[in-house]
Design a protein that fits this description.
Length: 749
């Protein structure tokens, strides 16, 4: 017998006489496919595809291309696009080919348009007229090709939905089931992008649900699910219809061609269960109508004993968790979850070692499904989650990343005051092992929320929050790192907790704040001895707590706050803010900053940052001027007695009057142009000034305008130098306004 490689086959009549193979495509096409398949690396593949694209560009531009060749060239164009190379040169040829009368060429042209064109392309407009004509064709294959292209290309971006909607709507009554099915899917796409244009099609979709062809009925389930999510109350009267359809599917009244792994239409079952979950949520009467068919579906799915049946069982659990609760169904859900968890686990509770790799992956999928089901059932079956608590905790050590992630979500939902220590420790262990920084950033926020919710005392809350930040941020300071952004959010939550309190009693909250300041002072000093820089988020919390709530001596607190600055000068704004609040809380004006703190403030005063420079300069002046320091202490006398910031500016009246008498200028509120119109007026006036300062010789057009003033005055064109001068003046005006705003805010504070 001849091998397949020499291109020979056995004759139908028998014998070993070779029969030439039927060639549907040219040799060039088969060579392209073979060469791509034999590529060893991406570089070789790119070279082949680039050569093919260059060749196609030349062949498609030929004025005389026969239909068979054009069809093949469009197919090769699709290959170029699928292999992630630019095929835009062939867009116009694909659009032109849709006008061909030959069926095979037209179908291939629509396929090429669907792959090569973008929904925002201007060439889509050229297809609308052709699509309208083809939708009215008597050949159903032409209609299906046009519908496929419409579903891919027509969106709200190209504003073609109103033009094609009437033609597609008429196809709901087409004699061919394939056309009706694709028309329903196109209308679903229209409803997704333009709900108001399809608002009148509710009855038509209901009618499609009762179509004589099951494929059309299944297509209508997709659009009805979207509509139910949008307006559940409007379609709740369809629950009996969905129940009847699901019952017919489960009882195998459909043709066997819809079976998948010996399960009747499993995807349709899952769609109907999702719809029943949406319509039955919070509706007792609608849920009662679905109880019986859901129970029947679970019974039939358990007999399947396959992954397909497990998927239907899982969807039944999700549906039961959504609809109005039923005790019997919830008990069955508990049994299903128990089977999922125990699949692949021996009697001793350990994972079976004598299982194949496929079974091991299937067991991992079942464990993920069980964890997902427990997360949905936890609000209604808290005892079920408590029963499997150890299995859930052990799942954090799973080899599968998705199982660990789902376990983490479930742990945050089943945490209580009794098990918070164990669960938080497991969460921290997960953060240590995870390598995905985006997963770590997301789960760190969930861990901090769980810590805050179930913290037994302030010390436990702060210590565990610091652990989360240390696991996240490490030595990172760049705000683009996801871990740093999450740690900054955690720091803000901790500062808000310290600011607002947690008990509601002012004395208890003040004691908590003092404990927090002492804890962070110890952390700062300990890290200095270890010569290890603190994460910026912990420095932020430490400066906030120590500067506002510390009860230690002024000199000791000032020296402690200088430690984060010594380790990293990027902490200067945080330390400076703490010094401000520390100074405001001092009752005595004679209390002065130690030399170490003054060095930090002087460094900030020489900073290039405008705000840091201004704040540090003011604080330095208050620290070095005894009279101004005394006035500042009088104005902030109330700050030392309470945690809120309040000022008494009447103490400064005598000082300001004396300064005015010595020739100081009175404060005038700056005029801030907040509207864009005012900015445009400034730009125009600046342009006019520049034009007046630098007159240019008049061009001939302006000379003619002076000779004929009745003509319309043309727009004056500015030179590049003039535009640059306007930009410089505008930028200077904006900088001046920003400085004025900062000065107003500083004076208000």
């Amino acid at each position: 017998m001849s091998s397949a490689s020499d291109g020979r086959r056995l004759s139908v009549l028998g014998g070993d006489r070779p029969v030439p193979p039927m060639k549907l495509k040219s040799t060039e096409f088969y060579e392209l496919v073979r060469a791509i398949g034999e590529c060893k690396n991406k570089m070789d593949e790119d070279q082949i595809v680039k050569r093919e694209a260059h060749l196609l560009k030349h062949l498609l531009s030929h004025p005389k291309v026969n239909k068979n060749t054009l069809k093949e060239l469009l197919l090769r164009l699709v290959y170029v696009e699928m292999l992630d190379h630019d095929a835009s040169f062939g867009e116009i040829y694909a659009v032109k080919a849709t006008h061909e009368s030959d069926l095979s060429v037209k179908r291939q042209a629509y396929l090429a348009c669907s792959h090569v064109l973008d929904d925002k392309s201007e060439l889509v407009v050229l297809l609308i007229n052709t699509m309208q004509h083809d939708l009215a064709s008597e050949e159903y294959l032409v209609v299906c090709s046009a519908l496929n292209a419409i579903a891919k290309l027509i969106t709200d971006e190209n504003n073609a939905i109103p033009a094609l909607l009437p033609s597609v709507e008429k196809l709901l009554d087409h004699a061919n089931a394939h056309v009706r099915k694709k028309a329903v899917l196109c209308l679903q796409k229209f409803a997704m992008f333009s709900p108001e244009s399809t608002s009148h099609l509710g009855n038509a979709f209901r009618r499609m649900l009762c179509d004589r062809d099951p494929s059309v009925m299944f297509a209508s389930l997709c659009v009805l699910r979207d509509l139910c999510e949008r307006e559940a109350g409007k379609y709740v009267n369809l629950v009996p219809s969905f129940v009847s359809i699901l019952k017919q599917i489960v009882e195998r009244r459909l043709p066997t061609s819809y079976d998948y792994h010996k399960v009747p239409a499993p995807f349709a079952q899952i769609k109907i269960l999702k719809i029943l979950g949406i319509l039955g949520s919070g509706d007792r009467e609608a849920s009662k109508q679905a109880y019986e068919v859901i129970q029947l579906t679970m019974k039939k799915a358990q007999k399947a004993k396959s992954s397909t049946g497990d998927g239907i069982l899982l969807e039944c659990v999700f549906t039961i968790a959504k609809i109005y609760p039923n005790k019997e169904l919830l008990e069955q859900c508990e049994g299903i979850v128990r089977k999922f968890i125990n699949r692949g686990v021996g009697e001793d509770g350990n994972v079976k070692s004598n299982v194949s790799s496929s079974d091991r992956w299937r067991n991992a999928n079942l464990k993920y499904a069980a964890l997902d089901a427990l997360a949905k059932l936890a609000p209604r079956l808290p005892d079920c989650a408590a029963e499997h608590q150890m299995h859930i905790v052990d799942s954090l050590d799973s080899e599968d990343e998705s199982v660990r992630a789902k376990t983490f979500d479930l742990l945050s939902k089943i945490t209580t005051a009794n098990n918070c220590d164990v669960i938080i420790e497991k969460m921290l262990s997960f953060l240590r092992k995870s390598n995905d920084r985006y997963v770590r950033a997301d789960f760190a926020l969930k861990t901090s929320q769980t810590i805050e919710k179930f913290a037994p005392d302030a010390k436990w809350f702060l210590e565990n929050t610091n652990k989360v930040i240390e696991l996240l941020q490490g030595e990172g300071h760049e705000p683009t790192i996801p871990e740093f952004e999450s740690s900054a959010l955690i720091a803000e939550r901790v500062k808000n907790t310290l600011r607002e309190g947690i008990s509601g009693d002012e004395s208890t909250d003040d004691e908590m704040r003092r404990e927090a300041s002492a804890l962070y002072a110890t952390i700062v000093c300990t890290e200095r001895e270890a010569c290890k820089p603190l994460p910026r988020a912990i420095v932020d919390i430490a400066c906030f707590a120590i500067g506002r709530y510390s009860s230690a001596a002024f000199e000791n607190v000032s020296n402690t706050l200088a430690i984060p600055f010594d380790s990293d000068v990027r902490n200067a704004p945080l330390v400076l803010d703490a010094y401000w609040h520390l100074k405001m809380r001092q009752k005595s004006a004679s209390t002065q900053f130690p030399e170490r703190a003054l060095k930090v403030i002087e460094w900030c005063a020489s900073s290039s940052d405008v705000r840091t420079h201004r704040v540090a300069s003011d604080l330095l002046q208050i620290a070095k001027d005894p009279e101004l320091g005394a006035l500042f202490a009088s104005a902030t006398a109330n700050v030392a007695k309470t945690s809120t910031v309040s000022f008494d500016f009447s103490a400064l009246d005598a000082y300001t009057q004396r300064a005015l008498a010595n020739g100081a200028k009175p404060y005038s509120k700056p005029k801030i142009a907040t509207e864009e119109v005012k900015e445009e007026e400034i730009v125009l006036s600046s342009a006019a000034e520049v034009s007046a300062e630098q007159p240019q010789p008049q061009p001939p057009q302006q000379q003619r305008q002076q000779q004929h003033p009745e003509r319309k005055q043309p727009k004056t064109k500015t030179t590049r130098k003039e535009r640059f001068a306007v930009q410089v003046r505008t930028l200077g005006a904006r900088v001046q306004r920003i400085e004025n705003v900062q000065r107003v805010v500083a004076n208000a504070e």
